[in-house]
């Protein structure tokens, strides 16, 4: 069953959320004025480059119209898992005439001119992390309850478990841009929001009967994840795993019931999520 996405704006979205997103745009525009970026980029050959940028942006949005969602899986009443991905670098920038999700590969020049460190702009981390979750047998078995992503600018959004995450970075980037501009994305002909910017803090969206487990390489509590999950998972508790989607730094551990390291080595977010899903599959006998 294939249903396409549609992007839907919402005029009366809560002011607080709009403010955070607007602040992002304002920051970028102010920085551009200071740096005189516009003139440089619109210089010789600039118009052709801008036209190409716009053509690509439109193409990315057109491609999104064909992205399907997965049909909901029966039996989702069994205990499930929730993921919170923190500090994702999803920041909008106006490069030339078009808005983009800034990334270190394509926008290094633009970022350096604004005295920003390109290495901090890694939206590929959250892309890989989401693919690790949504491709997992845990998700395919209907045990994924929700995914929350918090950007390092403080924008919080929810992704419904049956969304198909775009597999290419370009399409993913286009989807994130639309989400942060319009604040929600719905399926065509449906009212339900597949991706939706929501109010902070994330704790207000977590079930009361949940166990929140934060992951960090810096934690002194090094666990065997399979044993840990086997002991923590039960029929009446939802497990919430909090993983960082940034290149450097530590997650917010304020709301975590436990704070664990799962390896003696620093791992990528995607690797951690693969391990978590693997441990849950073992516990829940998902083959
Ligand atoms: C690239 S790391 C960020 C590095 C960060 N210094 C840290 O806290 O591990 C992305 C995320 O992967 C998780 N992570 C990486 N290595 C880990 C480990 N050995 N144990 C537990 N979590 C880990 C953390 O949630 C981290 O925020």
UniProtKB/TrEMBL annotation:
InterPro entries in the record: Alpha/beta_knot_MTases, Rbsml_bgen_MeTrfase_EMG1/NEP1, tRNA_m1G_MTases_N
Keyword field contains S-adenosyl-L-methionine: yes
GO BP field: rRNA base methylation
Signal peptide interval: none
Top-level taxonomic group: Eukaryota
GO cellular component: small-subunit processome
Keyword list, A-Z: Methyltransferase, Nucleus, Ribosome biogenesis, RNA-binding, rRNA processing, rRNA-binding, S-adenosyl-L-methionine, Transferase
Region described as Disordered: spans on this chain: 23-59
Acidic residues bias: start-end ranges: 29-38
Coiled-coil features, chain-numbered ranges: none
Localization in the cell: Nucleus, Nucleolus
Any Pfam family matching the protein: EMG1
Family (UniProt): Belongs to the class IV-like SAM-binding methyltransferase superfamily. RNA methyltransferase NEP1 family.
Name the UniProt record assigns to this protein: Ribosomal RNA small subunit methyltransferase nep-1 isoform X1
Species for this entry: Elaeis guineensis var. tenera
């Amino acid at each position: 069953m294939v249903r396409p996405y549609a992007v839907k704006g919402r005029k009366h979205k809560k002011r607080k959320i709009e403010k955070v997103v607007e602040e992002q745009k304002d920051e970028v525009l102010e920085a551009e004025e200071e740096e005189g970026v516009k003139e440089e980029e619109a210089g010789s050959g600039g118009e052709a480059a801008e036209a190409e940028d716009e053509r690509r942006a439109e193409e990315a949005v057109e491609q999104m119209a064909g992205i399907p969602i997965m049909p909901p899986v029966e039996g989702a009443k069994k205990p499930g898992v929730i993921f919170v991905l923190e500090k994702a670098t999803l920041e909008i920038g106006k490069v030339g005439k078009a808005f983009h999700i800034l990334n270190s590969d394509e926008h290094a020049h633009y970022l350096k001119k604004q005295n920003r460190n390109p290495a901090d702009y890694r939206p590929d981390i959250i892309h890989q992390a989401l693919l690790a979750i949504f491709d997992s047998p845990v998700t395919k078995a209907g045990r994924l309850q929700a995914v929350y992503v918090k950007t390092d600018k403080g924008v919080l959004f929810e992704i419904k478990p049956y969304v198909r995450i775009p597999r290419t970075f370009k399409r993913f980037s286009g989807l994130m841009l639309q989400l942060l501009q319009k604040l929600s994305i719905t399926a065509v002909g449906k009212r339900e929001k597949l991706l939706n910017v929501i109010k902070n803090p994330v704790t207000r969206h977590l079930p009361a009967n949940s166990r929140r487990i934060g992951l960090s390489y810096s934690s002194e509590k090094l666990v065997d994840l399979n044993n840990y999950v086997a002991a923590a998972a039960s029929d009446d508790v939802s497990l919430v795993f909090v993983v960082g989607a940034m290149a450097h730094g530590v997650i917010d551990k304020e709301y975590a019931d436990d704070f664990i390291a799962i390896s003696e080595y620093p791992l990528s977010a995607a690797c951690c999520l693969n391990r978590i899903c693997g441990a849950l599959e073992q516990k829940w006998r998902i083959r």
